[in-house]
Every structure is written in structure tokens, then in C-alpha cells.
Amino acid sequence: MTESQLFNLPTPLQLESGATLPAVQVAYHTYGTLNAAQDNVVWVCHALTANADVLGWWLGLFGPSFFFDPADYFIICANVLGSCYGSMGPLTPVTDNGEPLYHEFPLITIRDMVAAHDQLRRHLGLTKIHTLIGGSLGGQQAVEWAIQQPTLFENLILLATNARHSPWGIAFNESQRLAIQADHTYYSATPEGGQQGLKAARAMALLSYRSYEAYGTTQAELTDEKLDHFRASSYQQYQGDKLVARFNAYTYVALSKAMDSHNVGRGRGDLATALGQVQARTLVVGITSDVLFPPIEQQLLARYIHGAQYVEMESQFGHDGFLIETVQITNFLERFYSRKLVHS
Prior knowledge:
Layout: E1 5-8, E2 13-14, E3 20-21, E4 25-31, E5 41-45, H1 54-57, E6 74-78, H2 110-123, E7 129-135, H3 137-148, E8 153-159, H4 167-181, H5 195-209, H6 212-218, H7 231-246, H8 249-261, H9 271-275, E9 281-287, H10 295-304, E10 309-313, H11 321-324, H12 326-337
Parallel strand pairs: 5-6, 5-7, 7-8, 8-9, 9-10
Antiparallel strand pairs: 1-4, 2-3, 4-6
Helix pairs in contact: 2-3, 4-5, 4-8, 5-7
């Protein structure tokens, strides 16, 4: 991962919950060059456990020779508020004696994340954005931002996301938080707190990110003779250990709660009224095998965003298809834009 740039908000951030975060720092990456017309900006909103280095985790869609090529576009991705990749989060020292807040970190929402993004945008002097794109929690940020500032964005790309987080999705997240909080070390107020719980939570989450077919293809046994130590078991252990090595339990709880908070209709009458405020030309992408954000949720977005185009991707990879199926997504984007724009 390349080194992040840092932006410090000039004033404390008032959160939607009523709490205040002092001295908020936002980590971000930029790629490419802003052109003279300033009309080649692509802003990426990342998902739950990702970071600001979009070329590291969305290669195939972003990067040299791919659809969003830094030779053509000025690409920005900011690490979300509450994360552990440079932006202010539960492990950031904030108390008078320099200690993090850990499990006492205040509730943050998608709207709080967008507020931090928009302060960064203004700091960078950007008055228009060619494309705003995000999948999953990133898509939740993108649709919220496009509602708040409808004239800022020319194009909006929403993948495997929704207008309001579902009871099904909230239940998945709460189950994972129960696993984390059942680990007594979570309350130890140390960076390593809750690691075994986080491992279990990640294994649970993976079941919602993938599909029956994907596990059948990649984790099936090569023999009928096994009694124990199955490939699928090892895979869950491996994925849990991978996240523990790069993330922390407190951040996972904070960001999953932010996802639960997502509801564009809050304070705006209803979902239809809120989504009707979007003015960006919009492409909504669903995934046939997504059980966490099923296609009915993307169809709702497309129904109420004026003029939105809806496409559905055939994939066995479930929710993670928005990160994996970059060839299909590129084809959708090429049709959406009619032609690949090259900026000078």
C-alpha cells in the first residue's frame, strides 16, 4: 500500500448522534492529475474493511490500462471516519492522557463519513466530480452524498448497495458484534482486544459475502473419506486470521454500526423522496447471487433515482462479486458512458 496523505479537519466534527470528535484526521490517496477543466475527478468510496489505496484492492477496474486509468482521471479515495487505516477511529489517541477510546468510541453514521469526505473535497478545491463510485458500504456513502449535494456529481455508480440497511443485514452485523463482545478481551482497552471474537466475526461475515455455489466450487473436498479438517473449515480459519492481522475489533464494531445506521429516508420523508433528489446520471449494479445486498435492493434504488440505469451481473461470488468481477463491471461502464472518455 502506498503512503497516505493526511488532512486535518479545521474544527471538531459534530456527529449525527450529538457527540463531537475533536481533531479529526482523514487519510486519503490520489492518483493521476487534475486536468485544466477540472472535469476528470473520480471519487471512490470504499467498503467495510478496505482502505484509501483503491489501486491495491480494486485492481482490474482502477489502475494503468484499466477503465479508471490514472493517465486519464484524477482519482481520489479517502479512508472512512472510524477506520484504522489513517483516519480517526477507535484506536486514535484522543483522551487528555493520550489514550484511544476503544469500545467507548462514539456512534458514527454514514452521514458522518460523508461529512468528513466533503470537508476533504473542499480542502482540495474540487467543485465538480465526474464520477462518484462505491460498492456495499461504499455505495451507501455514495448515494447519501449524491442526495446531499445533487449538483456536485455528474455520474453516480452504485454497486451491491442499498438505500436503507435491511433487517437481514443488521442481523448479520449484530451477530458478528455478539461474537466480538463475547471475547472478554474486547473490554481490556488494548489494541489487541477482541481478536478471537473478530476472527469468528469475519468467518461469519464471509458466509454473507460469498454463495453456496462459490463454496462448492472452491472448497469442495477431493475425496469422500474425510471425517475432519475440511477445506471449508480451514478456509474460514484462514480468512479470520487474515483480518485479525490487519484490522481490529473496535473498528469492526464501529463501522458495522455505521452500516446499520444507513437510511437515506431518515429526516427526508421517505426513501422515494430522498432518492428523487439525486441528479447525477446513475448506474446501479446488482449481483444475482448476493444474499447480503440482494438485487431487489438495487432495483429499488434504480426505481426511485430519476433516469437510473439498472444492470444485473451474473456471478457465483455473491456480494464479493463487485470486487472480483471487474471485467463484467468494465463492460457495464463502457455501455453506461457510451464511450471511454479520455481527458487531456
